[in-house]
Amino acid sequence: MELIDSYLALVGVGQTGWGPLLLTAAAMTIGVSVCGFLAGTVIGSVITIMQLSPHMAVRWLADCYTTILRGVPDLLIIYLFYFGGSSLLGSVGGLLGYHGFIGMPAFLTGTLALGVVSAAYQAEVFRGAFKSVARGEIEAASAVGMRPWPKFRRIIAPLVLRYAIPGLGNTWQLVLKESALISVTGLVELLRQSQIAAGSTRRPFEFYLTAVVLYLVITWVSSILFRKMEARTTQGIRRAL
C-alpha cells in the first residue's frame, strides 16, 4: 500500500504530483497526431488521384512519393522539416535584417512531418479502397447523368470511405506512435514530459509506466471510435457468413 500511495502522490494532482502536466502532454500528443493525420488525409487523397491518373508520368510521381516516404526513417523526415524549415526562416529573417537562428515551430514541424509520412500510407489505403468499389455503382451514377463533383461527393467518397476505415484506423495508430519522435524538436508531448519528470525525480520507471498506460488508453478509445465509424458506414450491408 505504501508503494501505491507513493506512486499516486507522484503522478496525482496534488502539489507534488505530475498528473496535470502528464495529462496536458497527452492532450498535446493527441493534438499533433490529429493534425498530422488530417494533413496526411488531404495529401494522401491527392496522391491517390495521381495514382489513378491515366497519365504514366503522374502515376510514376505518385509511386515515387509513396516509395520514398515509406522507405525513409520517420525521424529523418522530422529533422529535414525542422532544420530545413529553420534555414528557410533564417533566410527570410536575414532579408528583413535579423541575423540569428529562427527555429521552426515544433508543433508545425510535427504536423507537417506526420502528415507527409502518413500520406504515403493513406494513399495506398485509399487506392485499395477505390479498387474495391464495384464498377457498376460508379457507372450507374454516370448513366443517370450525375456530374463529376456530385458523383464523387454522393457516390464515390462514401463507398471508398466504407472500405478505407479499417486501414485508416491502422494508419492512425502508426501516427500516434510516431508522434513520440516529435520530442526531438522540443515539443513537450507525452514522451518528452515523461522524460522531464523522470529526470527531475529520478524515478523513471513510474513515469514511463504511466506514459505506457496513457498511450494504451488513447489507443483503446481510438479503436472504439474507428469501430463505431466502420459500423456506421456498413449499415444495411449484408456481410458474408
UniProtKB/TrEMBL annotation:
Family stated for the protein in its record: Belongs to the binding-protein-dependent transport system permease family. HisMQ subfamily.
Keywords: Cell inner membrane, Cell membrane, Membrane, Transmembrane, Transmembrane helix, Transport
MF (Gene Ontology): transmembrane transporter activity
Example of a GO cellular component annotation carried by this entry: ATP-binding cassette (ABC) transporter complex
Residues that span the membrane, as ranges: 20-48, 60-82, 102-121, 155-175, 207-226
Location within or outside the cell: Cell inner membrane; Cell membrane
Lipid bilayer topology: Multi-pass membrane protein
PANTHER family: ARGININE ABC TRANSPORTER PERMEASE PROTEIN ARTQ, CATIONIC AMINO ACID TRANSPORTER, MEMBRANE COMPONENT
Positions of the ABC transmembrane type-1 domain: 26-226
Main localization (coarse): membrane
Protein name: Octopine/nopaline transport system permease protein
Matching InterPro entries: AA_ABC_transptr_permease_3TM, ABC_transp_permease_HisMQ, MetI-like, MetI-like_sf
